[in-house]
Amino acid sequence: VSEKELALLACGDVEGKFDILFNRVRAIQKKSGNFDLLLCVGNFFGSTPDAEWEEYKTGIKKAPIQTYVLGANNQETVKYFQDADGCELAENITYLGRKGIFTGSSGLQIVYLSGTESLNEPVPGYNFSPKDVSSLRTMLCTTSQFKGVDILLTSPWPKYVGNFGNSSGEVDTKKCGSALVSSLAMGLKPRYHFAALEKTYYERLPYRNHVVLQENAQHATRFIALANVGNPEKKKYLYAFSIVPMKLMDAAELVKQPPDVTENPYRKSGQEASIGKQIPAPAEESACQFFFDLNEKQGRKRSSTGRDSKSPHPKQPRKPPQPPGPCWFCLASPEVEKHLVVNIGTHCYLALAKGGLSDDHVLILPIGHYQSVVELSAEVVEEVEKYKATLRRFFKSRGKRCVVFERNYKSHHLQLQVIPVPVSCCATDDIKDAFITQAQEQQIELLEIPEHSDIKQIAQPGAAYFYVELDTGEKLFHRIKKNFPLQFGREVLASEAILNIPGKSDWRQCQISKEDEETLARRFRKDFEPYDFTLDD
């Protein structure tokens, strides 16, 4: 098995039969070795009583594999999916969200769309609308480099999927399924597309995504519909497959056509007009959740106009996500205390911390509205890393090492706290020990993350956490389950073991006048200027 290859499982409607599913997964893993992920489409919850789910929710039982699920398809199950942007439902079981893109740390790209089709706005929590589908297409398909995605997860089948294909049994694909899903599959060109809801198993022959002799060869798509868990007819509900993420594959290997490939079912069949009609023009929408691999240094730097060197037409840069209400940290927001801003990049900015632990305690903040590091898009991550590296160099020249921490709990906009600690104060190991000791005293489980690993491999989308990074690259991580002391990071650094300013652990005790803040900001800007990479372009 190549080290880039992932072993995945996909599953149809679970309908609350969690024990049957997870026992089956355990048996498969015992026989064939461990799988990386389980992806569930269709109805994850059933109309049965919740006793079985309670055991997973409370941790009495645990899923044997990282499991990702789609949201509600009906009114009765909406109650299980409180957060539209996805969240952890139980240990190892994560709800992906209403719609979006999930990028694993391996680079695997999974696009998901929860619910069933509705053409009427506003749509209830268990439906998706033409607008949802067009915003997903816009988010992905508008870049010239877009080739397709690895996996598409939807609950309904795509309408017309049986065209030019093998028989879909009792399901009439001209009547059944969603034309919006067909349009999405046509645009996104997934290598695998999974769906459920029809209580049957159908593996369609692979179909091509290009017009023969008119377009360059592209990869084929495999559509697989799965039956419901534990069905009496023993129809297949669990599908095992291995996949190398598209971005790690050799182009020639990727576009190899399987011998039984067919024409694209959504094209040239007279139906395309009807598929296209239901898709309105892409509406400008705030981007939904994105999760990217933090180690990734992706993409050419575009000039500030958003012009791509090859394309004659200027591309509109994608608007950064907007906050749902007033936000103290979105740079475009009137609430921002602009006098504290000391440097502005393309995707991030630096500001002095209000009531900082020291005169040069700064924050790295995304310009757009992102809640945590886990949600940042690739280009924002790249600039965050650049700011961290530059600040380390800057503080090192001043005889200081910096500690970076993030608390994704009771906060709405990502704030990466960067606190310089004079080298003369203590060694990095002392800082690490202080965090671990104080965490133990407060019954906080602070785990060391292996170096070069990525917080997104550990933190689930939507999950609360606290995370600290030392100047050596060592990282400590705590998954917040219930409560967490809001000032924990400050308390540790202000303690006698480190900065020895215990009275300053609460920022409200450290506030100074606006005039003094302006003086500190001016001084920081001047000192930082020789290191300012935003002037390089």
From TrEMBL:
**What GO terms in the biological process aspect are recorded for it?**
mRNA splicing, via spliceosome
Q: What molecular function terms (GO) are annotated for this protein?
A: RNA lariat debranching enzyme activator activity
Report the superkingdom from the record. Answer: Eukaryota
Q: Which residues form the Cwf19-like C-terminal domain?
A: 321-425
Family indicated by similarity: Belongs to the CWF19 family.
Domain named Cwf19-like protein C-terminal: residues:
442-534
Which residues, by range, are in coiled-coil regions? none
Gene3D superfamilies in the record, alphabetically?
A: HIT-like
What is the organism of origin for this protein? Cercocebus atys
Instruction: List, alphabetically, the GO terms of the cellular component aspect.
Output: post-mRNA release spliceosomal complex
InterPro entries per record? Cwf19-like (IPR040194), Cwf19-like_C_dom-1 (IPR006768), Cwf19-like_C_dom-2 (IPR006767), HIT-like_sf (IPR036265)
Q: What is this protein called?
A: CWF19-like protein 1
Segments of this protein annotated with the region Disordered? 259-279, 298-323
